[in-house]
Amino acid sequence: MRGMTAFSRPDGRKNDELRPVSFEADFAPNATGSVLVSFGDTRVICGASLEKRIPGWMRAQGVEGGWLTAEYSMLPYSTHDRKQRDSSRGRLDGRSVEIQRLIGRSLRAVMNLKKLPGYTLWIDCDVLQADGGTRTASITGAYLAARLAVQKLIDEGKLKENPFSDSVGAISVGIYKDNAVLDLPYVEDRDASVDFNVVMTGKGEYVEVQGTGEEATFSEEQLASLLALAKIGCKEISSMQTAFLSKRLLAGLGS
């Protein structure tokens, strides 16, 4: 599939090429673990904070272990036109609720919550700059922030073992000008006839696939091509996550 260049993408990338991806650790020093994740011009601060407390429903039902929950927001200046804060409206918009639930589900899919006894792991994803793919960047960075936070508690002797069984990352794919493309920036996402968000583990298993035709339909062949592209992207993201964490571990985070 590499080298599919039957048409020109706005930024000149190949159909199966990611935007430049980077991770910056400890961006929010007051969080237990934090990462600034960049997918091209999309930038998200992902912070993970561990609290020695579990939700009331877990105590009431006698559920063992801990919990993970996520919150997502777009800062007012993250988009071209100022976005009103949810606090100003007095409620979360439906999109924010959907995305933060997706982030939570994605991370819990690769966790054994019984290995997080008595703790709630809070994930906060704040979009600094939005240029498409904020939810996929958030999931990718949230895993790294959570892994850094967990490792800190392991090193301090507060946790016995790592509750994560695998990594998790996500990427967008879509049909843009009749071509299947990977990692859509805003200009492609806006005009795409089909739009998918795919969440996968480091082992290549699916966590969630969200896809829809934007006033259009798509064929089984197109679906297969989109999933193939997503697999390419998620595999590359997983490799980058592994390299990032390995470097942090060698820097003295622990083992």
* Percentage beta strand: 25-35%
Structural class assignment: alpha+beta
Number of helices: 6
Cα-atom Rg, whole angstroms? 18 Å
List keywords for this structure.
9 strands, alpha+beta, 6 helices, five-stranded mixed beta sheet, globular, Ribosomal Protein S5, domain 2, 255 residues, four-stranded antiparallel beta sheet
Description:
This protein has 255 residues and is of the alpha+beta class. The protein has one domain: GHMP Kinase, N-terminal domain (Ribosomal Protein S5, domain 2). 34% of the residues lie in helices and 27% in strands. It contains 6 helices and 9 strands. The chain has a 5-stranded mixed beta sheet. A hairpin with a 2-residue loop joins strand 6 and strand 7. The N terminus is likely disordered.
Topology:
Layout: E1 21-25, E2 33-39, E3 42-51, H1 56-61, E4 67-74, H2 86-89, H3 94-108, E5 120-129, H4 134-155, E6 168-176, E7 179-182, H5 186-191, E8 194-201, E9 206-213, H6 220-253
